[in-house]
Amino acid sequence: MNLSVIESTPEYRETFIEFNKLIYAERETSETQAIFKWELQNAVDKVPHLLALNNDEIIGQIVLYPAKCFYQEKVDNCVFAYDYIVHPDYLNTGVGVKLLSKTIKDHIHFGIGVSDISKKLHQILKEKSIGNIYKFLFIKNPLAYVYAGLHTYLKINLRKLSDKEKFEDSISIDSFNAIKKDCLPKTKTGWNKDLIEFERNDDYGYLRFGSFKNKYFHYHIFDSNKTLQGYFVVRREIWRGMRVLIVADYRMVANNNKVVEFICKATKKLMKRNKLDAVLFASSLQRLDEELLKQQFKKVGLPSEVFTNLTLESGWEEKARERDLIMATAADSDFEFNLGNKLWKN
C-alpha cells in the first residue's frame, strides 16, 4: 500500500469519473455529475481538487468549489467541499484525515451537510460548527403525500414534469414586482453585513446556473420605487415522488420580512402555474424560518450542518446556536444537485 494525497492533474480525469461512478452508484446521473465537477477546476479561480491515491488508483477525493465570502466587511477567497469521500476499503488508513487537513491548511473552507464520520474529522481538525440549513416544504396538493409515500416505500414515481413550463416575465404582489432575468443581479457587496454571506457575480451565475441550459429561472425583486430588494432562482424537479419547485438560491436583507413573504407568495404562484405539488425552500436563519412557518411551509428532513475554519469574532457561538450567523442557500452546497435527476438530464 502506497497512500498519498495530491492536487488533481489532467491525467486523472478518466479515473476520477470512474471512481465517482463506482462510489456513487446509487446516483442515476453519477457520470454526468462527475464530468461537471471535474470541469469546475477550469473555472475562473482554477482551484484543483484533492485526490487520495493508492499508487495511481484513486481511493478518495475532495471536490473543491471556489467562492468568496463576506464577513465583518471583509472579503475572503474560500472553497466549498463537495463529495468528500473515501473508498470503504480505506476508511481506517488515515487518508481521509490527510484530505481534509490539506484542504483546511490551504484554504478557508466551508463544508455543508457532512456525514457522521466526516463530522468527527472536522471537529478533530478544530473546524467550527456555525449553523445548519433546514429544508422547508409547502405542499399545495394533498395527493403529494400519497406520491411521496409511494416513492419512499414502494420506489414508485407516478409524477412527471410537463414539457410546457410557465415562468411569466413578471410577478406583482402588493408593492413588489419580480422581473424574470437571464442572470443574477450585479452586486459587489453582501446583502447582510452582520452575517457570513457568499458572493454572487457573473462568473458564479454562469458556472452554477448557466451550465444547465433552460433549467434555472432568475427573478429580480423590485419595490414600488423600482429599487432592487433581492432575487430568487428556481427550477422544477421530481423530488421524493412529487413535482416540486425548488428555490435554489435567493438574497435579500434578511430582516426585511416583506421581501421574504413576497418570495414565498411568488414561488407559490409559479408552483400553481406549472401544476406542481410543492415548493421546497432552504433556510440557515431562524428569522427566515419564522416567516416560512407563517407562510405554511413545514420543516422536513434532517438539517445540513455547516463547518468552517474561517476566523470569527468573539461571541460567534451564541449567534450560531441562535441560527443568526450565516446566510446560505441550497446553491451554496451540492445537496441541491442531488434533489432529483431532472437537472442532469437533457
Task: Please tell me about this protein's structure.
The chain is of the alpha+beta class and 346 residues long. The model has no long low-confidence stretch (mean pLDDT 93). Strands 1, 2, 3, 4, 5, 6, 7, 8, 9, 10, 11, 12, 13 and 14 form a 14-stranded mixed sheet that branches. Helix 1 (13-23) runs antiparallel to helix 2 (30-39) and helix 7 crosses helix 8. The longest helix has 17 residues, at 257-273. The chain has two domains: 3-107, Gcn5-related N-acetyltransferase (GNAT) (Aminopeptidase, 3-Layer(aba) Sandwich); 133-305 and 320-344, Aminopeptidase. The chain has helices spanning 13-23, 30-39, 95-106, 116-124, 144-154, 202-210, 257-273, 286-294, 316-321, and strands spanning 3-7, 50-54, 57-71, 74-86, 109-112, 128-139, 170-173, 176-181, 197-198, 217-222, 228-239, 242-252, 278-283, 298-308. It has nine helices and 14 strands.
